[in-house]
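Morning!

This is the sequence you dropped in the shared folder:
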Amino acid sequence: MAVTVQEHSPFVVLDEEDHIVEVGEHAESQLGPLVGACLWESFPGSEPLFRPYYDAVRRSREPVEFVQFYDGNVSRVRAVPLEGGRIGLEWTQLARLDTLTLGSLAETLDRLLEALAAEACGTPSAGRQDLRVIEGGG
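The structure's back. Tokens below.
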């Protein structure tokens, strides 16, 4: 099965044990040195956030797209099945949340929600999960 990746999108390929086995040109500077490393050991705390999606891709043999927050960044991730239990990952960073002050956090969250809303206009969202803000609290 071939993976179609936009030229500007960073991408990586994980083996069946979630080791990084291939890194695309646009991810080379950050992830190139990690080829051969286990993704979960390289990015502490990411396993419970991402692994369920990757396992779903392997089980269903269908692509999965989701929005996830990790390490201050919100990204849209697309995971596609490849042969031998491998998966291809490509992502687009939607926002880097500015947590310096509550005001700057609110501002970056507003921009993120606007970007997600604009992206969803005219696009069916069935099967796609988006980041949601739940009102409330103090």
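Headline: Strands lie at 11-14, 20-23, 64-70, 73-81, 87-96.

More detail when I'm at my desk.
O.
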